[in-house]
Write a structure and sequence with these properties.
alpha+beta, about 300 residues, 9 strands, three-stranded antiparallel beta sheet
Amino acid sequence: MITIVKKLRNEIIRKIYRIPLLSNTADIAYQMAITKHIDHLPYLAENDLSLVENIQEKGIAITSLKQLSIPSTMEMLQSAKLLGAKIPRNIAGNQNEFTVHATSEQIREHSSIFLWGIQERLLNIVENYLGLSVAYHGAYFRRDINNQVQKKSRLWHLDKEDRKMLKIIIYLNDVNEDGGPFEYIPKFLTSHISKSLKYDDTYIKDETMEQVVSSSYWQPCTGNSGTVIFADTANIFHRGKLPLASDRLSIFFDYTTRQPKHPFYCKSSLNNNDLVTISSRLCEHQKEYVFWQHNYN
């Protein structure tokens, strides 16, 4: 019942935000904040700047953990291996679901996964792309199950938390076209699709999408274990393709600005108690990325 009430509340607020006067005022304030923040963007090395430029142009950039060379990667992968063994291979009693997520408590126990996503170099990349101070929403460790359930995130959609956002996706096993890859449609087609379908933040089935964009434009992101995808999921239509041959194990790290377009859709991957526990390992500066919505001790 509480979930239904929250969904209704969010839908009402979202419609209010679409009132032209409010929307335009918010957009003007957003653009002014972007302009003001330009001189405060952190410095990036050439390789990281190239990543940002690719995301700006295409809405996506693909690299690898080896190429990124984040210092805490080995520790994160060791935790991921231990945690992966604990994630069930099926959803008992529910044939209509397709993803098993690690619990908040499990992420707390394997905190190096959450902490990887708040490394300074990654945050600098995200900030240069978003153009504003970053809010870190945490890490989602997930097993996408090899089944025929095609709904929600397995259908085409745009994320709605912010005007621009980033998800960093790490494959923990080899993913081919039958392994449930992240799939997207190039950024330059986004506006055309939205206008043609009068897109209203719903999920789009293949047959509907094919009416406006040929399936030849659908781009599956295949790759070996350790593949890293930077994707602006608010500005490229995307989905998780059906895994037909095997499960997909992956971690999603989520980021928006600290002034998101729809803050009521933003939530942490951890419950508050686990977030406070993990925050004891953060410096004061890092806590600003995590506790962006409220003050902290």
